Fold this protein.
Amino acid sequence: MKPIISLLALFLLFSCNSEQYADLIITNSKTYTVDESFSQAEAFAVRDGKFIAIGTDDEILATYTSEQIVDANGQAIVPGFIDAHCHFLGLGVNQQAVDLVGTTSFEEVVQRVVDFQKKNQLSHITGRGWDQNDWEDKRFPKKTLLDSLFPDTPISLTRIDGHAIICNQAALDLGGVTADSKTDGGEVVVEDGELTGVLIDNAENLVMNYWPGMSATDVTNALKKAEEICFEYGLTTVDDAGLGPNEINLIESLQAKGELKMRVYAMVSASKENLDYYLERDPLKTERLNVGSFKFYADGALGSRGAMLRAPYSDKPGHLGLMVNSLETLNETAERIAKSDYQMNTHAIGDSANHAVLATYKRVLDGQQDRRWRIEHAQVISPEDFDHFNNIVPSVQPTHATSDMYWAEDRLGPERVKGAYAFKQLLESYGQLALGTDFPVEQVNPFYTFYAAVARQDLEQFPEDGYQMENALSREETLKGMTIWAAHSNFEEDEKGSIEPGKFADFIMLDRDIMTAPLNDIPDAKVDATYLGGELVMQRKK
């Protein structure tokens, strides 16, 4: 019997040592776990891509051993950021387009196109980021200058919010667009009987449906570039608000081969074809990919006066905006999705659009309490509609408030604007908020999100006392909105969003403690290291 007993003892000893081994141990940190009690910890251990223990340095080091022990030197650590609404692929694609963010005139827009084309010599030119509200002349631009400089090269330049483009004549000719062209849910802007080149919302498709498509290699490169940028900012999950089957399948393939590590919550663009395709299939869930929702558009954007309002725009009498999809399509789509296990995530900006979406959700869900259907942006809400968010997830982007505050009251008037960007009221209604950026509409930087939510100021610290401070969030609420509450909006709160045993070891090390640092220092915060599943995927060069 002695040999048998010896083997058993050896087995037990090996098992004990195996249980105490960790792939990674972090010590000497100030870790915000974002657990239910919002507790702090000094150290934690990771094995097989997940947190296995959180505690003090003494507790962790007395229990676990590892070949990789990292002394955090007192640095703040938080869960990996989750951007609850962005355009991940779009960010990558934009790296191959003209950057028009921050332009102060249409002449500057055109000059950037000229400079870009000198370097790249493309057959078709795209760009994004112009905003006429930032110009001295705040009217929509006209294509005349583009036509004179680029008579033969199609050009499509997208407004910062994605809801309008300016095209030259060569681009308009691709789709045969004329002054008489019409489309549901969009507008071909005509002045004095002539095309201006501006196409709003669905009218963009009149040109873009004829634009050369991207190859699989192009899309792959765009995704990898977007991942690189996002890891630099500490993002470990991105909610891409609108993808098609081909793009989703490519993401899944790249993840399976280890070529794309980012976790992606993919909202399927809710076209009829995509609905038909996915509703015949169960939602797809892996450790890195979540395909269980549809992205639907109710209306357009406030900046381009495409958001659907219940009363006319204050700065454009008689104009109500427009529904990108009809109420009939909204109802039919919601009814189909309600019969499935999928979420419905609807873009709604104006108070009329939000009212219609809330009413439709309530009707088709018929008392179901945890479907977590979302309203993306929830930007302008009528006073009586806030209570209807008690069962609907508000997914908002704090930097929209500080970008739009210069002209929002012009669009809405002094009373109606009080129900815009009302994050605190929405939080009180649902109990949680999912926070995102909407990049590349806004900057990727999540510290801008944090600052805008808490300080309600732009990067120039304007306004001095903050914008509508009654709707500012606390630092704790903001960090939750960027982590555990965002995970909740994705049905992923049991696997990510906090630093707790059993969850993916997605965390980031910061160069300053955003929970205690002077508020005005927050926008300058940097991520020193990003870990995904316990793997170091980004380390900042100092």
